[in-house]
Amino acid sequence: MNVKLIDYTSNAVDKLIYTKSTRLTQGDDTRQKIKAMSTDEKMGELAYMANTIPSSWEFVNYTFEISGVSRAFTHQFVRTRTGCYAQQTMRLLNMEKFEYVTGPTIKHDEDAIAIYDGAMDMIQNTYDKLIEMGVAVEDARGILPTNICTNIIAQFNLRTLAEMGKSRTGKRTQNEYRDVFDGMFNAVLEVHPWAESFLCPKDQDRLKMLEDLIETAEQRSISTDERYAGWKAIDKIRKGEK
Q1: Positions in the chain short of pLDDT 70
Q2: Which of 8, 149, 160 is nearest to 66 (CA)?
């Protein structure tokens, strides 16, 4: 899996402050005043904005190139309606020698991975035979696995990324999704370090403490229902729900 930030709003700080300055007279004078502000003054404005109405966050965009992920992941990923997507096609592209993602509970079990890899080999061989017989690529793709690797380009604004951070960083989220979001999060912070206060859920210390408590309880063999209830409660805190 690889996540690369290929485009972003370069004047994000000034744009955020300007679009939040709705009580001021908009125009060149206001933009020049914002441009002339010191770094400390601008960071102070951003600290305030990170804890207020997020509508202005929608003016800042990030475009990611994400490769080596499963279609199982992208099926979940594109459910975020406020994103823009362009995904690799399997309707026209011959998927010979396809790669696939192996989940962690399979990867660390020798017997499971033998069965899993064997099934993938069988699918590949069957797919290749269908193509050799003259079957159209768009028809042969029907037997390809959900965990086949794909590439996708995705664009989100800062507000959407913040919402994803609340709902896609918890332990109930699929491992692959958490890994991708971590990659996007780190890529954004490389160009906009100030964005951490926008993207990180509030009460981080409290969340970490609760997660540690559940992980400790898991070692004492709590039930699946108890574990699920614990992670669900933490997700509600992460989203600011009661």
Answers
A1: 22-25, 169-172, 201-224, 226-242
A2: 149
- Residue 242 and residue 238: Cα distance in Å, rounded? 10
Sole residue written with tokens 């202005």 = 56
pLDDT at 20 (0 to 100): 86
Nearest to 197 by CA among 1, 14, 44, 33: 44
Whether 168 is catalytic: yes
Which structure tokens are listed for 29?
């004078």
Tokens 């744009």 correspond to 15
> What pLDDT was estimated at residue 204?
54
pTM of the model: 0.82
CB of 12 closer than 8 Å to CB of 60: yes
Q: How confident is the model at residue 223, as a pLDDT? A: 67
User: Tokens for 12?
Assistant: 């994000």
Residue 103, helix vs strand vs coil: coil
> Cα–Cα distance between 47 and 186 in angstroms, integer?
19
- 2 φ, ψ (degrees, to nearest 5): -140, 135
Domain spans in the chain, listed from the N-terminal domain onward: 2-85+149-200, 97-143, 202-242
Residues contacting 112, CB < 8 A, separation 6+? 105, 106
CATH architecture of 2-85+149-200: 2-Layer Sandwich (3.30)
pLDDT confidence of residue 29: 87
Burial of 69 (0-12, 13-18, 19+ CB in 10 A): buried
Catalytic position from the list 168, 172, 178, 220: 168
